[in-house]
Amino acid sequence: AFGIGVMAKPIVHLLFSGNKELFTNAAGSAFYSNDVAGTMLTVIAPAIAFSGLITVSAAVLQASGHERKSILSTCCGVLTKALTIWILIGIPSVGHLGIPLSTLLCYFVMFLFNMFFLSRFLHYRLNFRSTLMIPLIAAASCIIWQQINQLFDNA
């Protein structure tokens, strides 16, 4: 997820190098479509990790007979997405970035609800060190390596 976030703009420019469309947003700023797509992909990339965690936690809830809890977390996520899209798109400085931000927030809310239900009904506590910290350290090292590599490529 973090690798896609860091490499989003180069990947989009590589795949769509012939696309040089210029457009303006509600604030009046001009952007190339590839830059906008790369920025949106960068913003939504962490949602990949939440999507995986949601899938596993929802499967555990459903397998243990708490299907309605999984449905409730999904409904809360959908409601969060609808509200945040409506609010964020109306802010000219956020504009088109409101879409991936709302998706990221939606997945985060669903993850929190699933973790709450797992904790409350199955007495499961998430081990943050092994589940989140070690992958974050690995992702940070990849980001640092990519930045160092980019410095030498530009020199």
Protein model, in words:
With 155 residues, the chain is mainly α. It is built from 6 helices and 2 strands; from the N terminus they run αββααααα. Strands 1-2 form a two-stranded antiparallel ribbon.
Share of residues in helices: over 70%
Unreliable residue runs:
none
Number of helices: 6
Globally, the shape reads flat
User: Taking strands numbered 1, 2, ... along the chain, how are they ordered across the largest sheet?
Assistant: 1-2
Summarize the helix and strand pattern as letters: HEEHHHHH
Could you say which structural class the secondary elements and strand pairing correspond to? mainly alpha
Distance between termini?
Answer: 28 Å
Main sheet specs: 2 strands, antiparallel
Mean pLDDT: 85
State Rg: 19 Å
Beta-strand residue fraction: under 5%
Q: Give the tally of β-strands.
A: 2
Please sum up the structure shown.
The chain is mainly α and 155 residues long. Helix content is 76%, strand content 4%.
Keywords:
155 residues; two-stranded antiparallel ribbon; 6 helices; 2 strands
What layout of secondary structure does this protein have?
Layout: H1 2-15, E1 22-24, E2 30-32, H2 33-44, H3 47-63, H4 67-89, H5 98-122, H6 128-154
Antiparallel strand pairs: 1-2
